[in-house]
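It is worth pausing here to work through a concrete case rather than discussing structure prediction in the abstract. The textbook approach is simple: state the sequence, then state the predicted structure, then interpret. We follow exactly that order.
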Amino acid sequence: MVPFVFLGVGFYRAWIEIAFVGSFVSFPAIPFGARECFDGVGAIVMLICVLLARRIGPFYRHPSIFVLCGACMTLATVALFATMIVPSLGYTATWLAAIVGGVGMGLIILIWSEVFGCLSPLRVTLYYTASIALGAAIVYVFMGLRLPWLACLTALLPAVSLVLARRSMNRIPVEKRPQPNLVNFKPPWKIFLLMALYGFACGILETRVYTDSFGPHSSPGVLVVALVIFLSVGFRREKFDFNSIVRIALPLTVAALWLVPMWGAGATLLSGPCAIGGYTAATVLIMALCSNMCYRHGVSAIWLFGIERSLRLAFMFLGRTVANMGEHGSLGAGDGGLLISGLSMIAVIMATVLLLSQKNVDGQWGLSFLNGSGKSRADKHAQQVDNRCAALAAEYHLTARELEILKLLARHKTVGMIERELVIANGTAKAHVRHIYQKLNIHSREELFNLLDPHQLDPLEEQE
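Step two, the predicted structure:
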């Protein structure tokens, strides 16, 4: 089951789409560049938070940040809908909404990043994809509302998201919540490069994303991809292969790149969902990777996600700029559409090669500690578990091979994974596990984890 409190991302995603990005609401007199101002202010706010991360983080300890975020987003909503009542306010009110809305967006992204940084990659993927689907559903429902109801309920979306963020953090055990970060890290440049490449490709494709009333957060492509990944994680659980997300993102993005050049404008209805679906898969994977850095190594979510999201917005803007130049023939090419599709294809292929060069989601991705500033939180915990395994092996007279398998069991390895890692037959691995259980006088994995380390189980599972 997915706790509802962890789905608050869906509410602010719905707000962003209704208010600024791909909105189905016809706000009058929207000045050119308001969207860029909204994104730019959000990126600037996140970069400021990155620079001040040690002083202002963690956010959950400062209710004033939640209040500021909610006030900015609510004010932006009021200003936008006020332009529909008093059209003469359009220009001034929209710029005000773009600025204060961008401040709110930057803060709420980092607030939820702290929450997801306390969860395992599987839970992050499960909750984040469910949130994406919920956000799309909210937009679909809001499309049928009359204007007064639409305005009031849209203004409530940020507050609901922030309340759920507070309640989500309260459900996380104190020892797993973000702590003031005193460790110096070398940034995981591979993750940043990965998101920059996908952001650039998505910026190029953005003109093909919007079809009819759908925007980037409500497109059928977003909903389908989110549900596919959600169900895959739900059914596969610890056997879920994160590389499968790459196998979703690549073909969808490639299809989107070539549909329009091959079939013309008539292919937009197909290329739009494919483009945003591929980008959605990439963002899910990036969320899992960055959250895992925070979860395993104690990296500040404000610092890591602040850099990642700012880069994403910057390269999406760059992609949109290149696409506009190509459409207007400013690139000096005979076929601007084909050229920008080629540039986007190169970016996606480079990102895919980078992804496949990493063995799993737990890799370092270029992250390293500076000046010998300490081991990661995961390394320290793994050492404690190994020490406990050695103590149990001595107490219950386990063989050397049984101790080796016990350590793998403590790392949540399945029997199949153990047999592949140790290059032994399936029956041999099962026999060793059975002998370990008999010697320790236990009968299940849960009993084993409790014996090894009471904190090894995910406390969220115990609460549910």
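Step three, interpretation. The radius of gyration is 24 Å. Residues 120 and 333 are 47 Å apart (CA to CA).
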